[in-house]
Amino acid sequence: MRREDHRFRRIGLLGLGAMGCSLGLALRRTGNLQVTGYDPSPAGKMALTRGAVQTLAGSPKDAVAGADLVVLAMPAHIIVNEMSHLAKMVTGGALVTDLGGSKEVILDAAAAHLPASVHFIGGHPMAGTEKAGAAAGDGDLFAGHAWVLCPPAKGAGDGLARLEALIVSLGAVPVVMPAAHHDRVVAAISHLPQLAAVALLKLIGDGGHPQEMISLAGGGLRDMTRIGASPYEMWKGILKTNAAPVREALRSFIGCLQEMEDELAAAGDEPLAAAFRSARATRDLMAATALPDESEA
Fold it and tell me: Torsion angle, CA of 115/79/180/240, rounded to 10 degrees?
């Protein structure tokens, strides 16, 4: 698709934290787009100062008025809670998307509240940062990363093709999949690693000698726990709205750890060796895909 094929001209961006500000910066680079943002926190003024939006609206209604694309760059649970209010503000014929980390619950809320004249397509760029706020916004954040799109069962007219074209113009790669499948996948590849990093850091911090342990740690610990610095405020909505798939992933992970403990207790060798071989094969597959090294949201 050519860059101009999306045909969007006026974009209303609700939420100007790290993700929203990054999107605003990326959109402004494409040219010929009027981006109006809203965020009542200090992030709003920071995003305006950084040039992520041309206009900082005084209310959500003002931000989305006349927009042909509305982007919800807020935590997933807030998107769900605000969907009924958004329904009263969006111009008929507009396309609405989001950047939330869970999809099925958001699509359900959109189907329940948005009028038939407004199409909604769930979105989740598979890029992110453990830092928060507009100061962490990066216009290059999405380049080279997958951007999942979850259209509703009833379809969204030509909205999907237009949104794909916009994503391509930002340097990202659109990937279309059902919302339920997305939620199961990201529970394993994004949400579980976040919880694992938190658990490992908590284990060290509660171990009685955290400073000594940290002083002896090498790069492996730092690599495995980098995302553990993410604030809970960034994750509570994702974990709340995707709880069932995350619990399923946790059970599988705990089961794998339990098998390893059992083998150690039995002085076993081959099952552990097989686990290491499987891990090596999967890691080699990851290296072969040449994905960027940024964290996933």
Answer: -140
Q: Are 275 and 262 in contact (CB under 8 A)?
A: no
Separation between Cα atoms, residue 116 and residue 50, nearest integer Å:
36
SS (H, E, C) 152-164: CCCCCCCHHHHHH
In CATH terms, 182-289 corresponds, of 3.40.710.10, 3.40.190.10, 1.10.8.590, 1.10.3660.10, to 1.10.3660.10
For 20-74, what is each residue's pLDDT tens digit?
A: 999 999 999 887 899 999 999 999 999 999 999 999 999 999 999 999 999 999 9
Q: Which of the following CATH numbers is that of domain 3-177: 3.40.50.720, 3.30.1140.32, 3.30.200.20, 3.30.390.30? A: 3.40.50.720
pLDDT at 290: 59
Q: What is the pTM of this model?
A: 0.88
DSSP H/E element including 12: strand 10-14
Q: Cβ distance 71 to 98 under 8 Å?
A: yes
- Which H or E run contains 19? helix 18-30
Question: Beta strand pairing status for 119-125 and 146-150?
Answer: antiparallel
Domain boundaries, the chain: 3-177, 182-289
